[in-house]
Amino acid sequence: MAETHSPPVPLIRSTADGDGAPSSDRLVRALHAGDVLRLRRGVYMRTWDWLDAEPWTRFEYVVAAVAMRTPAPLFCRQSALLLHGLPLPTTPDRVHVRIGGRGSAGRRPAPSMTEGPTAQRRLAADAMPSGGSLDLRHLLRPTPTHQLEAARPAGLDRASLRRLVAGGEHHQPSVVLPGDTLRSVTGPASYLVEPLGLSLVDTVGRLDFPSGVAVLDAAMRRGDLDVEAWLGHLATARRRRAWQRAWDFADPASESVGESISRAQIHALGFQVPTLQRVIRTDIGTFRVDFCWEEAGVICEFDGRIKYLDAGMRGDATPAQQVYDEKQREDALRRDGWAFARWGWPEAWDPRLLAARLESVGVPRAG
Question: Which region ranges are annotated with the description Disordered (predicted)?
């Protein structure tokens, strides 16, 4: 999800300093001054590292801060999928972890990220040089933790599962991932997460169809996906239907979240499902395209900004050179008689906008 290869941001933990003074005193002063933000009790980060980050990267910071709790939490659902290296179609509004029993299940608010009027005034003043465009109220909204009971297998009611958990007869499966699992942040020594197969089964059935497809597309690209052992955790008919629909439609040939969301929307809108990653020769070279309807002579592409901003995807090209190259490529395809359309995230998430874009270039309807 991250769009740059910047050095990872360190989280700051409240500990005793080398001179014997508790660093928490210094951190509290820095918090009141607006120099640091508090992500969790005893865990802080530099303020402008947070404000300069993309929303999904800020979520990674919070997950890392939660991982620094004692005892170590067991991450599940979207938080586990993130730690397993899968892209999330949208930025979650909470961190998901498991608990051992029923008593502490539920949503747990996070502490305020700032403290005192001085910090607020300084942050507001520092935002002004950038045109005052920072929405501090939104950017500094704490991300809560949602504590969940053990995933329930089909055929076992919640009361029975609680008795097994309370008696120590139910083992919550977990794996340990290294502390550098998240490229954007350093701090935790390791992360405790549910296995990928369980995380997928427990999450995809709760997502909308495009999001579920996007997650499964990415999981299938790994080549080592095994979910069979976890399908029994699809505890309701609705979740089983949602899982099966997304699973049957998933395709590892989709190369990005935007392509996956678009493809699922195209299908849901009743258009013919396109050929993915078709190779086409032109007078300036050979290109691979996201979506192709050969008989209709139509090519479409999802055009997310990561293509232009991520140095890893651009290679040696500048963003301007990347835009120019894309224009040359599109012109060559049009010269060969292809109708061509692009869209970005607004169209991918809005069925009406996407349908209008598809109809404008003659994408055929299914059936």
Answer: 1-23
Question: What is the domain partition of the chain in residue ranges?
Answer: 9-194, 206-252, 261-360
CB atoms within 10 A of CB 255: 16
Q: Cβ of 344: how many Cβ atoms within 10 Å?
A: 14
Q: How far apart are the first and last CA of the chain?
A: 36
Joined tokens for residue 75: 């991450």
User: How far is 50 from 57, CA to CA, in rounded Å?
Assistant: 9
Give, in order, the Cα–Cα distances in Å from 325 to each of 205, 285, 320, 359.
40, 12, 9, 26
Residues 6+ apart with CB under 8 A from 89: 207, 210, 211, 214, 215, 257, 260, 261
8 A C-beta contact, residue 179 and residue 187: yes
Q: What is the pLDDT of residue 162?
A: 85
Chain position carrying tokens 């509290």: 28
Task: Report residue 128's pLDDT band, with 50, 70 and 90 as the boundaries.
Answer: low
Please give the full DSSP string across 227-274, using - where no structure is assigned. -GGGGGG--SHHHHHHHHHHHHH--TT--SHHHHHHHHHHHHTTBPPP
Nearest Cα residue to 215 out of 273, 266, 256? 256
**In this structure, which amino acid lies at residue 41?**
R
Type of residue at 258: G
Q: Check residue 236 and report its DSSP letter.
A: S
| pLDDT at residue 313 tops 60 | no
The number of residues in the chain equals 367
Mean pLDDT score, 324-339: 84
Q: Are 65 and 13 spatial neighbours (Cβ–Cβ below 8 Å)?
A: no
Output DSSP code: residue 296: T
Distance CA 277, CA 254 (A): 8
Q: What gap in Å lies between CA 200 and CA 251, rounded to an integer?
A: 15
